[in-house]
Design a protein that fits this description.
The structure holds two protein chains of two kinds. Chain A is mainly α. In chain A, 65% of the residues lie in helices and 0% in strands. Chain B has seven helices and two strands. In chain B, helix 4 packs antiparallel against helix 5, helix 4 packs antiparallel against helix 7 and helix 6 packs antiparallel against helix 7. Classes of the chains: A mainly alpha, B mainly alpha. Chains A and B meet through helix 1, helix 2, helix 3, helix 4 and helix 5 of A and helix 1, helix 2, helix 3, helix 4 and helix 7 of B.
């Protein structure tokens, strides 16, 4: 972005003036593309090998966050944008963790009261035949 | 930087000024996000709102799944396909993920070639992206048909908790709709590229504003968002 033109704050931005600044060598995209495939295959293998419990969930989340991070940062160009834009976009969705906590508390509560009033059903899900 | 010196905001700040840069960007009654064409932050802000939509869907799915005493259907079995006599778990879903990631790759390349004003390559890449997106929607429609024929309804299914169907149809339905709308817009942008509307900066159909190659990048933002949502759906609904 070294040659980004200095504009008066109210001037209409020249179309294409900063476009050359946004270009990156194609190789970056191919490498990240390959990485995304590797992460997707890894996520699929978590299910294929029927991993269970904490190992399963932590791997699912780690691979998911890595893929999401790569897509936002490279494909959606975030890592080359101004800090103000990055913060304005990335910080609000973090509030969703609050909703997640509330949802977890409520889900747990509903599960417990259903068990208390309607009795437990602890059988495994019915097998699926296609 | 001396703390008592007001930051001159008539000129645009270079992007890497850390926290002081963020403060300068947002302060004193002038345009934030300098040097960013207005369409881009507009699309980003729309995507933030869409993030909240899908976020609430996925979080309510989590709440509902935690709350049932009846066990949740086993997704590796539900979404498996029988190929050559054996049940392969999540095969269709794996193919759909592959298709969508490929479309994201072609979209990123289309944006890059768009900035070089290479009309032919950009057009081809946009059409390939749209075709991959349409393939994804067809596979999702096939998945829906298969599950509906096996008795999955929003109010019940043969295998486990009754809420499985409503969560599945709501989340994948909204996502599939977003993909479909994306495919339509990809074709519109591709046609504009092909006709040279962006080189000649012709105004769009619905607007008096003149088109330029930034719209390819803005389209790219939407398409990558659609792929991003699928990453979360794949992890939380199909794998978990």
């Amino acid at each position: 972005m070294a040659h980004a033109d200095v504009h008066h704050a109210h001037a209409e931005v020249q179309p294409g003036a900063h476009a050359p600044g946004q270009q990156h060598p194609l190789g970056v995209y191919f490498k990240i593309w390959g990485l995304l495939f590797v992460l997707s295959i890894a996520s699929y293998l978590v299910d294929y090998f029927q991993l269970q419990g904490l190992l399963r969930w932590s791997l699912i989340i780690v691979f998911m966050l890595l893929k999401a991070g790569l897509i936002v940062a490279v494909f959606m160009h975030m890592m080359w944008e101004r800090m103000a834009l990055i913060y304005a976009i990335v910080l609000p969705p973090l509030l969703l963790f609050g909703l997640l906590g509330i949802g977890a508390l409520e889900g747990r509560y509903t599960f417990d009261t259903r068990g208390t009033f309607f009795g437990h059903e602890t059988t495994a899900p019915a097998p699926v035949k296609h | 930087m001396a703390t008592h010196e007001a930051t001159g905001t008539a000129a645009s700040l270079p992007p890497d000024q850390g926290l002081q840069g963020i403060v300068a960007d947002f302060s004193s009654d002038q345009r934030a996000f300098k040097n960013v064409p207005w369409g881009k932050p507009m699309m980003w802000i729309f995507l933030v709102s869409d993030t909240f939509i899908f976020g609430t869907f996925l979080i309510s799915y989590m709440t509902v799944r935690m709350s049932t005493q009846v066990p949740w259907p086993n997704s590796s079995e539900v979404f498996s396909l029988t190929m050559f006599g054996t049940q392969v778990p999540l095969l269709l879903i794996a193919i759909m993920t592959f298709v969508l990631i490929s479309s994201s790759g072609t979209m990123a390349l289309a944006v890059n070639y768009g900035h070089r004003k290479d009309r032919r390559t950009t057009f081809i890449l946009l059409i390939v992206t749209a075709a991959l997106g349409a393939t994804f929607v067809c596979m999702q429609a096939f998945e829906w048909t298969k599950l509906i024929s096996e008795g999955v309804r929003p109010w019940g299914n043969p295998w486990g908790a009754a809420q499985f169907g409503s969560a599945f149809f709501m989340i994948t339905g909204f996502h599939g709709t977003h993909v479909t709308i994306g495919v339509i817009f990809l074709i519109i942008v591709a046609v504009k590229v092909w006709r040279g509307d962006l080189d000649k900066e012709r105004p769009g159909f619905l607007t008096g504003r003149r088109g330029n190659y930034e719209i390819v990048e803005i389209m790219g933002l939407y398409w990558h968002f659609v792929d991003l949502v699928w990453v979360f759906i794949f992890a939380f609904f199909y794998l978990w």
